[in-house]
Amino acid sequence: MTAGVLFVVAGYLLLVGSALGQSIDEVYQRARKEGRVAIYAPLSAKTEDVVFPAFRKRFPGITIEHVDATSDKLVARVITEARGGKVFGDVFGGTHVYLQQLKEQNLLVDISLPEAAAYPAGMKGSYWVATDTEYFVAGWNTSRVKKGEEPKQFEDFADPKWNKRLAAEPRDFQMLMGLAKYKYQSDDKAIELFKKIAANSPEFHRGHSQLIELLAAGQADVCVTCYGHHFPPRVKLGSPLQMMFSEGVGHVGGTVTVLKDSPHPNAALLWARWLISEEGQKIYAQAGETPAHPKVEPVEKSRPAKVYFLAVEDGKDYPKYQKLWREIFQIR
Prior knowledge:
Blueprint: E1 6-9, E2 12-15, H1 24-34, E3 36-40, H2 45-58, E4 63-67, H3 71-83, E5 91-92, H4 96-104, E6 129-141, E7 166-168, H5 173-183, H6 187-198, E8 203-204, H7 208-216, E9 222-227, H8 231-236, E10 241-243, E11 247-258, H9 265-276, H10 278-286, E12 306-309, H11 318-329
Parallel strand pairs: 3-4, 3-5, 7-8, 7-9, 11-12
Antiparallel strand pairs: 1-2, 5-11, 6-9, 6-10, 6-11
Helix pairs in contact: 1-9, 2-10, 3-4, 5-6, 5-11, 6-11
């Protein structure tokens, strides 16, 4: 083999010579010989409907095999397959928490993709690059919140007028964490605020998709921990919803990484590079996602003006804030 070709050495993918300096189209020529890419990632139906066809059109002859499940189940599958001595997946997508589990099992490849150079430090690591971001925001049903009483910041939800009018997702401790670390720089101040919010007896609903639908149906006046990207498509369909654009908590939503001993290494590299490129990220935006690429804006405005963005290294503090969140809201 010549320089610039992918080798599999001692179970690792090594990018040799000028491979990473080659264009995506040059990688495509090698990927065509493999003919397929197996993607292990939890993706929305719209993302599948928009992104996959765009990839197939851009790279004819590459079949996509998508294994869709929750991130924890996908992690378990990857680990089980690796222990069985047979790797079926090429790339993995999920939040950094799940990637870390695979990294600890030595199942991911350290790889520096050329397209990742455009991303800031918090959007990439030695073995992953962010594909999209998510924003925890507040929002309300405009038919149930009167003109002039709309909340302008999270502190407003401490007002007793919101008693029994709030809804939230029971697992969204990131909201507490973001405000504690990056708005107040104080756990005590954030805890004090959320205790006041807890006193207003918010109703918890598991699943952000369910939460936004309940809000749209008027079964709650206000959502304290909705996803920003859930508002625009429903507003377009006529739902009486309004997002609070003033502030929110952000984190890396999805990522892409290459699995060790990938059976289609060139196709894996092709998918990963295209997905994080400006071209691929624009397609991601068309699917209703909020792209991670700093030069690609979402199609619909879903980023709050002020973002308290959780860094990847904040992951080590997740257990602490999960515990605090459950204690504050008495979630079992």
